[in-house]
Specification:
Layout lengths: L8 H18 L1 H7 L1 H15 L18 E2 L15 H6 L20 E4 L2 E4 L4 E2 L12 E3 L5 E6 L2 E6 L4 E5 L2 E6 L5 E7 L5 E7 L4 E8 L5 E2 L5 E7 L3 E7 L5 E5 L3 E6 L5 E6 L5 E6 L2 E4 L7 E4 L5 E6 L2 E6 L6 E5 L4 E4 L4 E3 L6 E4 L8 E4 L3 E6 L4 E7 L5 E8 L2 E8 L2 E7 L4 E5 L7 E6 L5 E6 L5 E5 L5 E4 L9 E4 L4 E6 L2 E5 L7 E6 L2 E2 L9 E4 L5 E5 L2 E4 L2
Parallel strand pairs: 1-20, 21-27
Antiparallel strand pairs: 2-3, 3-4, 5-6, 6-7, 7-8, 9-10, 10-11, 11-12, 13-14, 14-15, 15-16, 17-18, 18-19, 19-20, 21-22, 22-23, 23-24, 25-28, 26-27, 28-29, 29-30, 31-32, 32-33, 33-34, 35-36, 36-37, 37-38, 39-40, 40-41, 41-42, 43-44, 44-45, 45-46
Length: 550
């Protein structure tokens, strides 16, 4: 696949040599205007090899329309998306790919979680201070380890540690966001001139540093918390970056923009236009490129904020800073995404964009459109079909396990587990033929499944590589009668109007003095146990206690 990169050192050498010779007679500016790619390669090689950085002037109008280089409509070769998933059956790589564990985090302490407007931690403590029956979510931003958080409530900014201790930072705050690594966060306050002052707060020092002024509440903060990207419109529409203690650096001008991410070195900024020319742009080392035609429904970034996998209306694309075009992966009207066994951080309190602890999206993402389920292969990803309801599969539950994609499904009355063998998906039967699957729940790792079959009141548990065992009995034939709880890794179920839980044997059964009619449906795909009592009221189960759930 051609991602706009030279394939060998010889080509780079020739380009640099040619640049040096011609520049001596025609001038550097002429060559860069004729061949921006040569300029990019030259600058990149100088920086990476010799530590020398050549700074180009950021032109207000990089092209005649003033919107930068637009490659959002450019399609690449035969090895990318066609019209819908069938085309992938023809081009999907049957080349081997080794999936890698992407968990680089070393933090093993207490973690913070949220559901609706409740906060709770992995030690069982629940904080209901921010609960409001009229709110469905909490304006919260956490670091990737979920060891600290900030909450913006009624313009008051709160800092919360892993033990759910609260500290008020300041008031009259317009916007705020925690950095990926933690330890720093930004916030904005409204000044008398109606501009918003941008501060970076150092948690350890307990102090804030003013770094910029912006017109918008939203600011992007680098993973290490040392750099921000922000929009400023006084006489011109301009996008800047600024480091703590540094000077503002102009990144782009001509459009009203919202920054999404900025890399630690400030060399790469992803941003969206919210002006007349909607779309996602990437600024990288002095050059900007438009990579989408419209705003992004969903966007995922690698931990360095150099790569992006995003969905614009009707299409999923991949792009890496420095490439010439975004790579189309899939044409679809609606997609869902599952980040598997990797930590992630939301880039903004309101946007559906995430930074994932990965350097390869293939190792952490499953994509599906409610009919076809895909994993990814390769550091430059290609979709890899792992299951489809068109092939007679039902109740499909995919994830990325230790060795690659894992998928559970029912086909021809048999429950199967399919595992990636290095090239293909290989299925193994879990139940016998004729034992029609009634319901199932699967752990996040994909190593454990609890299931029920027709005309059998029992719950069966099966761990990867082992035979199924009966772990509970006495259930009715009501659908969705049991749920997996990521808080404690147990399966919760309803029996004779009471709530029970079980893990891997009958010896692990626990009963709760809770009257329950049925399980409810959590908001925003939250993985919590939501129950409906006999009066029809909804509650969420946190650390064995019930809390009102709107």
């Amino acid at each position: 696949m051609n991602n706009g990169k030279n394939s060998g050192g010889a080509i780079i050498g020739i380009g640099i040599a040619a640049l040096m010779i011609v520049s001596s007679t025609l001038g550097y500016k002429f060559i860069t205007a004729v061949s921006p790619k040569v300029d990019e390669t030259f600058n990149s090689t100088l920086k990476d090899t010799f530590g020398i950085e050549v700074t180009r002037d950021v032109k207000e109008n990089p092209e005649e329309d003033g919107k930068g280089t637009d490659t959002s409509d450019v399609e690449t070769g035969d090895d990318v998306a066609g019209e819908g998933p069938d085309s992938y059956q023809k081009i999907v790589s049957n080349k081997p790919y080794t999936y890698k564990s992407q968990n680089t985090r070393t933090y093993t302490g207490t973690t913070i979680h949220t559901t609706e407007t409740y906060l709770y931690n992995s030690e069982g403590k629940v904080l209901d201070r921010f609960y409001n029956e009229d709110d469905l979510s909490l304006p919260i931003s956490m670091n990737v380890d979920a060891s600290e958080a900030i909450v913006l409530k009624d313009k008051t900014l709160y800092y919360i540690d892993a033990d759910l201790n609260i500290r008020i930072i300041t008031e009259n705050v317009e916007g705020a966001g925690m950095c990926y690594e933690g330890g720093y966060f930004y916030y904005t306050t409204l000044s008398e001139s109606y501009m918003r002052a941008v501060y970076i707060y150092d948690v350890a020092a307990g102090s804030a540093t003013k770094v910029a002024e912006t017109n918008l509440n939203h600011v992007a903060i680098s993973p290490d918390g040392q750099t921000v990207a922000y929009f400023n419109y006084i006489t011109e529409k301009e996008l800047y970056t600024c480091k703590i203690g540094g000077e503002p650096k102009l990144v782009y001008s001509g459009l009203r923009t919202t920054p999404i991410t900025v890399s630690n070195d400030g060399d790469t900024v992803y941003f969206e236009s919210i002006d007349e020319n909607d779309g996602i742009y990437c600024y990288n080392r002095g050059q900007s490129i438009k990579i989408s035609r419209e705003y992004a429904y969903n966007a995922f970034f690698d931990r360095d904020c150099k790569q992006i996998l995003f969905e614009e209306p009707g299409k999923v694309k991949y792009y890496k800073a420095g490439d010439t075009v975004a790579l189309p992966l899939f044409d679809s009207s609606y997609m869902e995404y599952n980040v598997c066994n990797a930590k992630k951080q939301r880039t903004d309190m309101s946007l559906g964009h995430y930074i994932i602890d990965t350097d390869s999206f293939s190792d952490v993402l499953v994509i599906y459109d409610y009919e076809n389920y895909f994993a990814l292969k390769g550091d430059t990803p290609v979709l890899f079909p792992i299951a489809s309801s068109k092939d007679g599969m039902h109740a499909i539950a995919p994830t990325i396990g230790e060795n690659g994609p894992v998928c559970y499904y029912e086909k021809d009355s048999i429950l199967y587990r399919a595992d990636y063998d290095g090239t293909y998906m290989v299925e193994t039967a879990i139940t016998e033929e004729g034992k029609f699957l009634y319901d199932k729940v699967v752990s996040d790792s994909g190593d454990e499944v609890w299931f029920k079959v027709y005309s059998d009141p029992a719950i069966y548990y099966c761990k990867k590589g082992q035979d199924p065992v009966k772990v509970a009995d006495g259930l009715s034939d009501k659908l969705f009668n049991f749920k997996w709880n990521p808080q404690d890794g147990k399966c919760y179920y309803i029996k004779e109007g009471k709530l029970y839980s079980v893990y891997d044997s009958v010896d692990t059964i626990e009963s709760y003095d809770i009257d329950i009619k049925e399980f409810g449906y959590p908001h925003y795909n939250e993985k919590v146990i939501c129950i409906v009592d006999t009066s029809g009221k909804e509650f969420v189960l946190l650390s064995g206690e019930l809390y009102p759930y709107n």
